[in-house]
Structures are given as C-alpha cells and as structure tokens.
Amino acid sequence: MQALQWLTGSQGRPGCKLFRQAAAAAPLGKAPPRLHGRTMSAPASEIPAATLVVFRRAAGGGPPELLMVVRSNTMSFAGGMAVFPGGRVDPGDHALAEAIGDGLGEAEAAHRIAAIRETIEETGLAPALRPQPDAATAAGLRRELEAGAPLGQALAARGLALDLTALVPFARWCPRGITSHRIFDTRFYLADLGTGAVDLTVDATENTRLFWTSARDALAAADRGELSVIFPTRRNLERLAQFASFAHAWDHALATPVRTIVPKVAQRDGHEALTIPDDLGYPVTHEPLASAMRG
C-alpha cells in the first residue's frame, strides 16, 4: 500500500480488509440520481482507491473544518503524516455497488462505497448513511467491519442504507511514472457532516491521532513544523482553503473538471519542481522538488 499512502496516507489492515473481499453484499435500496452523479473511469492496469474529505461547520463560526488523521510513526510509508481517511477499493465494494445499482455505474459506486467504508473503519465516523446513525450504532458498525463483516450486511442489520449521492467527486491523483511501487489511482470525494457534534476515536493501528481543522490552520501548522503533509495533501489543503463553506466547495467541485492528476518533474523558476496541471482548481501547481514531501 505504499503508493496509496503517498496519495491518501491510507494502508490496508491485512486482517480485516484484504481477506474479506469476496463477501456478498445485501441490497440497500436505490438512491435517486442527482446532478453530482458524475463518474470517473480508471485504467485497468492501476489499483483503484478512494479517500473522503469530510467537512463540518466550525462551532464558533469561520472556515469549515476538515477531518484528518495522523499516520503512525511505525508505518513504513508516510509515517507521522497528516492525511484524509481513505484506502483501496475492495472486491466487496464492487459487490455492494452491483447490488445497489443506483445509476452511478459499478466502478464509480464502488469507489464511493470504499471512501465511506474506510472512513468508518479509520475514524468511527459514519457519513453518507440514511438515516444518520447515532454514536452507539456507528460504533457497532465499525466494530463489525473491523471484525471482517461485509459493509452491506452490517448496514442492513441496522436498517441503514448508503446515500452515495451525498459524496461529490473532487479530484483524482495517480503517481504514474514517478514511483517504483504499485500504482494506485485514487479518487477524492467531499462530504458534509453538518454541525459535526460527534465523538470520534482513532483506530490505534494505522493512525495515532484524528482531529478537526480548517484547511488554513492545517497549512499553517505544517509551515510551523507541527504537522507533516505529503505533496498531494498540501495541494488539496491549498485548494480546500479557498472555500468559506461546504456549499462553496460543492459548487466548485461540480464546476471543475475531474481529470487524473499525474505529478511530473519540470523546471520552474530555475529549479526542478514537482508540478501538476494548472486548470483543475488548484491555486498552487508546483513545489521545489527538494522540499516536496513524497512520503
């Protein structure tokens, strides 16, 4: 999972993620199609992954806050880095996507399911569910997933259904050509928690800390050396810092094309830099190669 961590900071737990993959999933109902049901196809040669940027309104007003986790220092890649929750798309996610048949297409639905599932497993937060579960229900759901239960089965047992249209595609990153590891094609989504008055606990295996922060505060902490963020995370934080509300971010995401971002090394201002395209909504599109944190 090293290349995936470069993008999302997420690394699969072999005991409960990689060996539950063929589990069948119960249908959970059909979500109505909406404007933001856009799809993004993935090259067959690359491993699909997904991550979720969860917003909440700041209690005292001001910019929205985002949920982030800090990777354990013992992780072989991106140890100690602050990232958004996420991970690889499992076969079980595809099985559930096929069972739902909500009009998004199996691949797109599977990525959204993976983003939700990974967020539940890593943080205890259960976004994009109908009805929204209380803390005790979310905790039970997380325990069942960590024990290896298929997501569809765990949701159906609690009378819950996925609302995949609550997620909007935001970006897509792939380190094609700049890593010798397996290549992960990672789709980023946005979701809104509203007030965010919830208690969360870190999973204590992959992550050592989880916290809410505005994008601007996260960048300031990184500049002070209090947080470490890898290149894609910094670029996404800079982009997210532009938004005064989730509604603003939502509208921006709908209006901005989603193309695969493949960072490339190029000359900028007389030095080698890691660069990304300049027409995909990012206010900063390059960083000196010497300072770019790649895990």
Polypeptide structure, described:
A hairpin with a 2-residue loop joins strand 11 and strand 12 (271-275). The protein is globular, with a radius of gyration of 18 Å. The chain has nine helices and 13 strands. Mean pLDDT is 81; it is low at 1-39 and 74-79. It has a single domain, classed as Alpha-Beta Complex (Nucleoside Triphosphate Pyrophosphohydrolase), CATH 3.90.79. Helices cover 29% and strands 22% of the residues. The strands form three sheets. Strands 1, 2, 3, 4, 7, 8, 9 and 10 form an eight-stranded mixed beta sheet that branches. The protein is of the alpha+beta class. The two termini are 12 Å apart. 44% of the residues are buried. It has helices at 2-8, 14-18, 91-100, 106-123, 135-146, 151-156, 215-223, 231-240, 246-255, and strands at 47-56, 65-71, 82-83, 86-88, 129-130, 161-162, 168-173, 184-192, 207-214, 260-261, 264-268, 271-275, 286-288.
Instruction: Determine the CATH topology.
Output: Nucleoside Triphosphate Pyrophosphohydrolase
The radius of gyration over CA amounts to 18 Å
End-to-end separation in angstroms reads 12 Å
Main structural class: alpha+beta
> What is the helical fraction, as a range of percent?
25-40%
Count of discrete structural domains: 1
The first-level CATH class is given as: Alpha Beta
Shape type: globular
Number of strand elements = 13
CATH architecture: Alpha-Beta Complex
User: Which sequence of SSEs, written as H and E, runs from N to C?
Assistant: HHEEEEHHEHHEEEEHHHEEEE
